[in-house]
Design brief:
heterodimer; A: about 260 residues; alpha/beta; Rossmann fold; four-stranded antiparallel beta sheet; 10 helices; about 40% helix; B: mainly alpha; ABC transporter involved in vitamin B12 uptake, BtuC; 2 strands; about 70% helix; globular
């Protein structure tokens, strides 16, 4: 059994009378690549919002490395080591590509507003270090040549990659990707799959992937959770999921009954 | 030494000598121009500091005059009651250092009290967004004004006379330079880029580990501090303050400067503050200059209508403000440890 990094224990969330997710268990190990799939409205994004602190679970606990994260604000959860991207890209439109990544270093900053005013040697050294690390990160993802562009002028695929770079700049232990393949063509999807595997190995982190596209999830995930109507209907290895009758039912509808 | 600090120190020295030579104009035929000059300085401080909240951080505060009032009345009351003692203790009223040190302390009192008020107003109101925040800050400004109006020892509606005419070119423009320096160096740093992310997308900012509430409160407190300083300068220049001088329209004036200059562009906002202070005076001069045939004189005499019309035209032609859109070149310059 792999050591567990992120653990959701019997998480339930209700909005008024509606139970969006009930008794959800999730276990993401160190250096793991886990997929979360399910049809529209299954509760995938709700679970994402629980993990990132947007919602607090009504019941159950959320923990990272055994430390309970219930009730923490989103920025505090990011500080603990969970970074995310968004389903509909949310970059900072008035900042350049460079600055979009640079702000994500904010979390581990040694200086504060006072140092920004005094501009001492330490401040300048740290700013230089951050500048170098930002360029380095952008170079890994081949975005360094667009560094001074406004991020809204980047092509769609690059915007998605930039969002991932920005999330990585917070030095996460766990990276959450919310439908990264949305709106991509098959070639782009294939590249994305390579990219996710590359990130997982290069940065030595765990990845939790919420995705619609079965091929992407089946292709790279080691462990898959299938959600429908807020309940886990199946979990296991990709091959097991592929054959699981409940999964087929949820995605394709019930198997017709043949009366000879 | 960083470039920004160098520029700040040079400008302080320049304003010091400017003060030595220029302050004699205060009681000469140029007293009117001197008055405009001081008003420009005070307005720049107000607009640049408000720009940190309304421009860079993307919140909408409509109560800046309220903080100015807190600063003006606090520093005026302090000077009126404690300056005789303080100045004598420091070396007597003939000693310039003693007088200016006393003024500095008095301004600090005004600024700090305004900042504390800003903190008290800011913490509960930053749960609100957009229009709601505007209404809360507007309400706060009115509360301050009404409170002063009903406080007898602050002069109530009679207004308050201020004993010391301490404001001079050095203090006004020295503090303007410091205010511009503070806002620019806050924004041009990795820490300060956080203000912009709060404006752009709060949800994404939180997901990047940025404590948005903290940023909003810092912006608000810094802005209130400088509004208080501007109030103190104003009080010790005009030597008379009334609650009506800090009404809702004063706040709107400052917001107009920020919007006209371009939200989030300090240079633009400085330009707007200067031109919006001078423009009405130019229109006033024009109306006395007999430029038009007598039949059309009424046109220039209604200078406030012309002024409003100019604002409308400007907003129609440049909705992003004078220097609204940060261009790529500027951003590239900003890259080297914030370009400062």
């Amino acid at each position: 059994m792999m050591e567990s990094l992120l653990k959701l224990d019997k998480c339930t969330i209700r909005f008024g009378g509606l139970t969006a997710v009930s008794n959800f268990d999730l276990d993401v190990g160190n250096r793991d690549l886990v997929g979360l799939i399910g049809p529209n409205g299954a509760g995938k994004t709700t679970i994402f919002n629980i993990i990132t602190g947007v919602y607090e679970p009504t019941e159950g606990t959320l923990s990272l490395n055994g430390e309970c994260l219930n009730g923490l604000r989103p920025y505090a959860i990011t500080a603990k080591g969970i970074a995310r991207t968004f389903q509909n890209i949310r970059l900072f439109p008035s900042l350049t590509v460079f600055d979009n990544v640079r702000v994500a270093f904010n979390l581990h900053l040694q200086h504060g507003p006072i140092h920004a005013l005094t501009r001492g040697r330490k401040f300048i050294e740290e700013e230089h270090a951050i500048e170098e690390r930002t360029i380095e990160l952008l170079r890994i993802f081949n975005l360094d040549s667009q560094c001074d562009m406004m991020c809204k002028n980047l092509p769609y695929g690059d915007q998605r990659r930039l969002e991932i770079v920005r999330a990585l700049a917070t030095k996460p232990k766990l990276l959450l990707l919310d439908e990264p393949a949305a709106g991509m063509n098959p070639t782009e999807k294939a590249n994305l799959m390579k990219l996710i595997e590359f990130i997982q190995e290069k940065f030595d982190i765990s990845v939790l992937l919420v995705e619609h596209d079965m091929r992407v999830v089946m292709g790279i995930c080691k462990q898959i959770y299938v959600l429908d109507h807020g309940v886990t209907i199946a979990m296991g290895l990709p091959e097991e999921i592929r054959k699981h009758p409940k999964v087929i039912e949820a995605y394709l509808g019930e198997e017709p009954v043949h009366n000879g | 030494m960083s470039r920004a600090r160098l520029i700040l120190i040079i400008s302080l020295v320049v304003f010091f000598f400017g003060s030595v030579f220029g302050d004699s104009f205060k009681s000469s035929v140029f007293a009117y121009n001197y008055d405009i000059l001081m008003t420009i300085g005070v307005n720049i401080i107000l607009a640049v500091s408000l720009n940190l909240v309304n421009g860079y951080t993307g919140q909408f505060s409509l109560g800046h005059a309220g903080f100015m009032a807190v600063g003006a009345y606090a520093s005026a009351t302090w000077s009126n009651n404690l300056d005789p003692i303080l100045v004598n203790a420091l070396g007597g009223p003939a000693n310039l250092i003693a007088v200016n040190l006393a003024f500095f302390i008095s301004m600090l009192v005004g600024g700090v009290l305004a900042a504390v008020t800003g903190l008290l107003v800011g913490i509960p109101s930053f749960r609100l967004k957009g229009d709601y925040l505007a209404i809360v800050t507007l309400g706060f400004g009115e509360i301050i004004r009404t409170a002063i109006l009903n406080t007898d020892f602050l002069g109530a509606s009679r207004g308050l006379s201020v004993a010391g005419a301490y404001t001079n070119i050095f203090w006004t423009f020295g503090l303007t330079a410091i205010c511009v320096y503070v806002v620019l160096s806050l924004v041009h740093s990795t820490y300060g880029r956080g203000f912009l992310t709060v404006r752009d997308d709060e949800v994404a900012a939180e997901a990047m580990g940025i404590n948005t509430t903290k940023y909003k409160v810092i912006a608000f407190v810094v802005a209130s501090f400088f509004a208080g300083i501007a109030g103190a300068l104003y009080a010790h220049f005009k030597q008379f303050v009334t609650p009506e001088g800090f009404n809702f329209f004063r706040s709107v004036d400052i917001v107009v400067m920020v919007i006209l200059g371009g939200m989030g562009s300090t240079v633009g906002v400085v330009l707007a503050a200067v031109s919006l202070t001078i423009l009405p005076e130019i229109l006033r001069a024009l109306s006395h200059a007999d430029l038009l045939p007598p039949a059309y004189n009424g046109l220039l005499e209604n200078r406030l209508i012309l002024y409003s019309l100019l604002l409308i035209v400007l907003m129609l032609t440049r909705p992003q403000g004078l220097l609204g859109e940060l261009n790529t070149r500027r951003q590239r310059l900003n890259r080297r440890h914030g370009g400062l």
